[in-house]
Amino acid sequence: MSRIIRRGDVAAFDASTDAIVCGLGGAGACAALEMRAAGLDVMALEGASAGGGSTRLSACEMYLGGSGGTSLQRDLGIEDSPENFRRYLMACFGEFADPARVDAFVAGAAAHFDWMESQGVPYRRSLFTGRDVVALTGDSLQYTGNERAWPFRDLATPVPRGHLPADAGHDGGKVLMDTLLQRVEEAGVEVRCDHRVTALIQDDSGRVCGVQVKADNRLHCLEARHGVILCLGGFIMNERLTRQHIPDLAAVCTRHGNPGDRGDGILLGVAAGGNAIHMGQAFVGVAHYPPAQLTYGIFVNAQGQRFVNEDVYLARLGAAVSRQTDMRAWMFIDNRYFARPDYHDTTVIVAVGETVAEVEAEAGLPEGSLQQTVATYNRHARAGHDPLFHKADTWLAPLESPPYALVDYSLAQLRPTCFTLGGLDTLPGGEVLSPDREVIPGLFAAGRTAAGIPRTGEGYASGMSVADATFFGRQAGLRLAALARSA
Ligand SMILES: Cc1cc2nc3c(=O)[nH]c(=O)nc-3n(C[C@H](O)[C@H](O)[C@H](O)COP(=O)(O)OP(=O)(O)OC[C@H]3O[C@@H](n4cnc5c(N)ncnc54)[C@H](O)[C@@H]3O)c2cc1C
């Protein structure tokens, strides 16, 4: 299957426009809106029968801050300096981080929140202070990542940055996408649904000047005079690509996305000369909370050893579990704190006992291993510290109320949700880069088609993907429009 068509092989275009946005999820809608606002004629091509994509399935938690705080943070008396926001993001992604992209995001994220409100996305000025993945209280601001966990709390001042549409709970994505798609229609973007993008059209200079789509059971060639923006989501639904890039996770995880997450955008970008980076990185959601009380439990591996501070965000735990032998791990917990995790109703209790020794024996862990781990943990917890993994004292309490239980959080048993974080290498303005980091003229990408701000599951926080997709979708639209003006 050829993903590139030479311009010289196109006898005539079926339609022509200034710019084409491929994919009408969060990134695509935002890119289209910015280009229309700049006066370009814009066509948006969506393979499904309606726009929305994974963004519509999401809770639309958006990770935003900096500039002293978003207006929502500031209204709640929360300050978030650009330095602090940057320190946190750089700590999250380490050598995977793209400093230029982080800087652009830090500088513009607070204004992005204002833009979202100006589009009509509703937010409530209230803070949820508990520990949950998505606040179900209607509040619009919460902690969503590892801000209060070690080592991050020592590297940056903890600040809540998860922005949620008011009163939407898990349905925030519907609120966002219904609003944005309404704006897209009002703005006069030509939306074509049931149009699957199958190839890019490139001229002799390598410039991308159009796309081929399949619609009404035939192929059409569409011209984009100033460029094409790929916003086609990630590749978690592509069996071949996931087996190739995240084989261990693909074998055990539940694929978290919409059917369009086939990696079409990444494959098209690579065919045009782009470079796909960090393709082995993924979000793995081992949701050991809510309820928050489960944070008092401890995780052990097949050697009966702890390996993580249990107060981390669920994707950092997922990354830590995936590094253990055979990706196996168990939560040890006592009767005082025992509960079933809300998001994993299929967890299996592998052992119960009146003593730690009984649990250890029933689970088949090496003799003495769990007993020693629990004794060490309890001794330190009584003294209010965790010298091994620095779990915050809020969540430290000795586990000494029998009966005790060992609950299986091994990935093959839990089948946690997973989506991909690798994608096309781009500049902050969305320009797709070759392996030599040269710009491929006329080609842009944003959202999970690109490698964005979130680049590892270890550093991920709820809200980083939708914030990244919508923010950098806008940047790609703005950049394409600026280049069109100067041309
Ligand atoms: C249930 C769920 C909850 C989530 N919650 C959150 C959250 O609260 N916060 C957060 O930050 N992240 C969340 N995520 C992740 C986040 O939603 C996505 O990573 C992000 O929205 C992706 O945005 P996008 O614009 O890149 O892609 P999408 O929104 O998926 O848009 C891509 C579009 O491209 C279309 N498409 C694909 N291939 C083609 C083709 N060849 N031709 C034409 N069209 C095509 C698709 O149909 C789709 O409409 C969640 C994910 C899921 C599944």
Task: Write a concise synopsis of the structure shown.
With 487 residues, the chain is α/β, with parallel strands linked by helices. It has 15 helices and 22 strands. The mean pLDDT is 97.
Walk me through the topology.
Layout: E1 4-6, E2 15-22, H1 26-37, E3 42-45, H2 53-57, E4 62-63, H3 71-75, H4 82-93, H5 99-119, E5 127-128, E6 141-142, H6 152-155, E7 162-163, H7 172-187, E8 190-192, E9 196-202, E10 208-215, E11 218-230, H8 239-245, H9 247-252, E12 254-255, H10 264-271, E13 276-277, E14 282-285, E15 298-300, H11 314-322, E16 330-334, E17 348-353, H12 356-363, H13 369-382, E18 404-408, H14 411-414, E19 417-420, E20 423-424, E21 431-433, E22 439-445, H15 464-486
Parallel strand pairs: 1-9, 2-3, 2-11, 3-8, 5-6, 11-22, 12-19
Antiparallel strand pairs: 4-7, 6-7, 9-10, 10-11, 13-20, 14-19, 15-16, 16-18, 17-18, 21-22
Helix pairs in contact: 1-7, 1-15, 4-5, 5-15, 12-13
Features:
alpha/beta; 9-stranded mixed beta sheet; 487 residues; FAD/NAD(P)-binding domain; Flavocytochrome C3, Chain A, domain 1; 2 domains; binds flavin-adenine dinucleotide
According to CATH, the fold-level topology of the largest domain is FAD/NAD(P)-binding domain
- Number of distinct helices: 15
Query: Would you report the number of β strands?
Result: 22
General shape? elongated
Radius of gyration: 24 Å
Distance between the termini: 33 Å
- Small molecules in complex: flavin-adenine dinucleotide
Stretches where pLDDT falls below 50 for ≥5 residues? none
Query: Structural class, from secondary structure content?
Result: alpha/beta
Percent of residues in helices: 25-40%
Can you identify the CATH superfamily of the largest domain? Answer: FAD/NAD(P)-binding domain
Mean pLDDT: 97
Specify the biggest β-sheet: 9 strands, mixed
